[in-house]
Amino acid sequence: MSINASGNFVRKLWLYNNLLHRLHNSQSRLLNNRFAHAIIASTMAIVPLSIVRGLVITASVICDTAGFNNAAIWFMQLQVGFLALAPLVMNIYVAVHWAVRNRLSQIYCIALSISTLMIFRRILDDNAQFFLDISIPLALASGIIGNYLQEVVSESLLKFRRWKDSSYVNILSFFITLGIIALFSGVIKLGAAIWLKDGMDFLSSLSLYFYPKDFLHGISYVLLRTVPWFFGLHGYYLFLDIDVAFTAAQKINISDWHTLRHPLNILSPVFYDMWCNAGGTGNTLSLIICILMEGKSPHRRLLGIAGPMALFNINEPLIFGYPIVLNPVMIIPFVLAPLMSYLVAYAATYLNLVPRISEVVSWSTPSPIKVWLASGHSISAVVLYLFIVALGVVIYRPFVTSSLKHSIPDNEDLDGFTGEMNISQPTDFDMVPNYSHVVEGNSYIEAQRQIEKLQTTGKFILYFQPQVRLTDNKIVALEVLIRHQSDDGKITPPVFLKHYERTGLMPEIDFWVMEHALDYVREHMADAENMTLSVNISPQTLVDYRLLNVVRKVLAKPLPDGWHLEFEITESQKVQEPVRVAEVLEKMRNLGIKIALDDFGSGYSTLHYLTRYPLDKIKLDRSMVLGLAKPDGFNFLQQVVKLCKVVQCEVLIEGVETQDELEQVQTAGIELCQGYLFYRPLPGNTVCQLLAEQHIQKTLRDGMHNKSEARVV
User: Fold this and answer.
1) Which residues form the PTS EIIC type-3 domain (predicted)?
2) Is residue 234 within 8 Å of 50, Cβ to Cβ?
3) How many angstroms separate the Cα of 237 from the Cα of each of 213, 228, 244?
4) E strand residue ranges, 65-195
5) Residue 387 to residues 112, 379, 394, 702: CA-CA distances in angstroms?
6) Neighbour-count burial of 223, counting CB atoms closer than 10 A to its CB (0-12 exposed, 13-18 middle, 19+ buried)
7) Domain positions in the chain
């Protein structure tokens, strides 16, 4: 290979890697975006509805073919009902998802979402008496706008004053939000009626642009049907009016052709169903074949459901299961395959290599049968269909193969102690195709699967690890830790937390731990005195907009006398928004919460953390203990302790496991200790016994001290 050729290869390889890396990064941002979450949740909610609708249409076609006309009409009317119900279901599910995600009342969120939808529907049409005649964009927009506005109102009310009962905030924010929406809508209706009409006219003209009246507009129609699937939205549902008019025009055209008044059009709904929707939108029959060709593909498990559905051109299980949704890489062949099929089929039809569509055949009819019937039993049309399926396989194959090469095996090379993957990394990342986004590309799906497995095979429980004051060996604080207990009683350490971090769900874990730990302390440890409950807070949670409200909620009921709440922030994980984190931590301290810096000395900007954030305690990492074995290890530890005391923080050291280590850390001036030499993480009932014994000993010592004083007197 020449030097120029080699240079071109390297540049192409770098561009390929860089492009896919950017695409996967954008996927991560989308998957962690709450608005995208709400849309995807609502679209997934209507997947069963879409599948049932497809089966109902298939039943109608079968009945019509068998001569049962009344049954065929009944089934067809039933599918129209399903179609009309889909936007309303999506609107409701946006509200349900928003309520669960933001820990709000589902009843209020659903009521607000539907009310907003009705108000918006009424603005757009004075004659609208009911809200089943709505579009999916309107249903989604009203659900998101209404609930987001309620969230803003609730936060404003909480800032305005502190409420003892959060239910008052929910009720008040509901009515204020509804009033704002009604007022704003009335202003638009009365004061901007002309602008509203112009806007609706513009949307109508925009939708007409996608009407496939000629070759170029036909390309736009292909994009309309495929691109919205990136967000889980069916293009057919988005612009239903286009398809209704397109179907009516096809029937008229075929009728005119039979009476010799007009030639057959090239473009028709059946044309797209035949050539661009083999197995469903995106020509996903080709994707299924690619998955079958890869013997070790992890996506083969999808075919048990997706394969039979694809025979009737229903591909929602495949689109959401592979996934195509929010996947910037797989959306490329998903759009490209039907687009290339359109160009090939249009050219073949225009050149009379295959006949034009002369029969209206339901989209749910199996593709080979549909091609045979719609083309007037043309062999050449069947051959073209096979060619288009093969073309789709050629387009999909590189993406499927790449996905298989870089998929992550289940628990392979998993370190049981740390829970991390032991992956040997090449030295020259840029020269390894796709390496820069190997984990990024597949780990999200794998993490979701592992989370679902955890939720269905057991439950989460709390463990506590005591922190000891060295002057009197008394337990003065408890760090709460999460564990998973399987149905057979097996306790798993928190190696699963990386799955929640990958999917952006660490706030859910942190909030769960915080709420349950505080409830447990109030119920079982109230007799302990002068104690601190330490809760780990991840960087994701620190920048979560719900944190302040959740903290206020859990602290609405006071802690037992002498107890304090402490948040541990992890120094070993890089904080993405340091300015915002500093503001959040300051607000936490204003609420009486202590702030501890965990894993000090093991991570990123150690000194930067000390100067930027308001801290009450610094927890030295076990690496400091291990460093005592080195010649200058003790002197180094002494200097670190002095540095921590300069910023007026308590100092705690983790990982003390031997008596020699204990003596050295005491000599270094450390007051608090946490490690296996004292206590391992323990279940709550064991800790309760330890605290009870400590309380009894304190009572006995106090009693003896009082008696001694009495004798002296």
Assistant:
1) 19-399
2) yes
3) 20, 10, 11
4) none
5) 51, 13, 11, 91
6) middle
7) 33-209, 211-405, 458-701
Structure tokens at 481: 């830790």
- Domain 458-701, what fold? TIM Barrel (3.20.20)
Of 580, 572, 622, give the one whose Cα is nearest residue 597. 572
- C-alpha dihedral sign at 171, 177, 183, 186: negative
Residue listed under structure tokens 């609930």? 147
CB 109 within 8 A of CB 150: yes
Q: DSSP code of 677?
A: T
Distance CA 428, CA 435 (A): 10
- Of 3-7, 28-32, 39-43, 367-371, where does the model show the most confidence? 367-371
pTM for this entry? 0.55
Mean pLDDT of 180-190: 79
Q: Which of 35, 60, 216 is nearest to 141 (CA)?
A: 35
d(CA 140, CA 383): 42
Quote the CA–CA distance of 384 and 416 in Å, as a whole number.
Answer: 54
Query: In 10 A of CB 576, how many CB atoms?
Result: 11
Strand partners, 563: 531
Q: Whole-angstrom Cα distance, residue 42 to residue 472?
A: 57
> In whole angstroms, how large is the CA radius of gyration of the chain?
32
State the DSSP H helix or E strand holding residue 481, giving kind and residue range, or none if neither: strand 474-486
